[in-house]
Amino acid sequence: MVLLVGTLLTPSFGGVPAVAALEDDVTFGMQRTTVAPGLDFEVLCHVTASYDGVAVRDGASAPAVLATRPGGCVMTLYLLGVPVPLPLPFQTPLGYLPLFLPNVRILTLGFVDVTVDLTARLRGAISGDPPALTASPAAAEWTTWGPVETTVGAHVGVRGGVLTTYESFRLTYVIDLLVSLHAFGMTLFTWYAPLVTMEGVPIVRVPVAIDLVPNAPVITEALAPSPYTIETAWTRSSDSDFARYAVAVTGGGVRRVFFVTDPTDNSLAIDVKPMTTYTVVVTLIDAGGLWASSRAASITTPRAPDPRGDGVLGSLPDPGVLR
User: Fold this and answer.
1) Dihedral angle, C-alpha 238, 240, 244, 248, nearest 10 °
2) What is the pTM of this model?
3) Which one in 46, 50, 162, 298 has a CA-CA gap of 20 to 30 Å to 220?
């Protein structure tokens, strides 16, 4: 048993350990699909989503940051059945991207110039919010690559240990296309394909560690075996994030706090004064700084024996009657 003595009045709060940084390669794919009459579109793009696990106390909230950066990307237009790869900068575009493709041979039209006005957006939304969690805002949009912050709140309402769950984010990639064919200084044809939408795979699952309020100890024993000692015992903690017990003893105008750091040590003997009433409260503190206290128990120590004998003064028999 490790025992510390102090004068702590209220257990201090600490942080719940956060989960290590993680990354997911999210794929956005669409096989060749007709998006406008005479215009087909095929996409295979990647986005890296990086995030930290969230540590939050039950009944509180904590920030969650989801950052994105571009990965490789291939997009192909099919103009009247003719494949035209888009000259992307080898990564998934975001925002507005104008493209110019000169001298593209389009069947009977011969060689034409193709312009593409591409606008890409990345969106994220909560997917299947678990009952224990809420996120605000529940949806976000990236206008540039980088981090977006939301707030995760926990409301479990049970006690004891740490609950690990996940907040799931579904990423969606949305593209608007305006494609035009030009020849001899004239625009021959224009296609417009708005809101070409692709859902990312996999869903990003951010781990959330919820620090639950510990179960309060119950004092099972409070007695004074002698005028100079009191003994107390309490129920053992089964919380997975146990840190210590704080045993507060108040009496005779003095308050002392004893810390017990072994969860299996659930009793304590304390030196005290005779003929004094003491109040004992046992508090369980977890690794995240949350705590729960027992009901107070009262103990009164007996009177000390007379130092001149086993009884008190005046209790000895009259010497004249001794034989």
Assistant:
1) -50
2) 0.75
3) 162
Evaluate whether 111 touches 188 at the Cβ level (below 8 Å): no
Percent of the chain exceeding pLDDT 90 equals 71
Nearest to 133 by CA among 59, 200, 228, 237: 59
> Domains plus CATH for the chain?
22-211 (no CATH), 214-300 (2.60.40.10)
The owner of tokens 């986005």 is 47
Task: Report the Cα 144 to chain-centroid distance in Å.
Answer: 25
Q: What CA–CA distance (Å, rounded) separates 114 from 300?
A: 95
- Evaluate whether 167 touches 64 at the Cβ level (below 8 Å): yes
DSSP string, 178-214: EEEEEETTEEEEEEEEEEEEEE-BSPEEEEEEEEPPP
Q: What tokens appear for 92 in the block?
A: 């998934």
Contacting residues for 317 by C-beta, under 8 A, at least 6 apart: none
d(CA 320, CA 308): 20
Radius of gyration of the chain (CA): 36
**Continuous segment of H or E residues that includes residue 320:** none
Q: Which helix (H) or strand (E) holds 1?
A: none
Amino acid at 93: P
Ramachandran area for residue 266 (φ above 0: left; ψ -120 to 50: alpha; else beta): alpha
Q: Report angle CA 135, 123, 150 to the nearest 5 degrees.
A: 25
CA distance to 10, 11, 45, 120, per residue, from 87 (Å): 64, 62, 14, 15
Q: With 80 as the cut, is the pLDDT of residue 306 above it? A: no
Non-local CB neighbours of 262 within 8 Å, separated by 6+ positions: 1, 2
Residue with tokens 């998934």: 92
Is beta strand 61-79 parallel, antiparallel or unpaired with respect to 54-57?
unpaired
Residue 106: its pLDDT value, please? 74
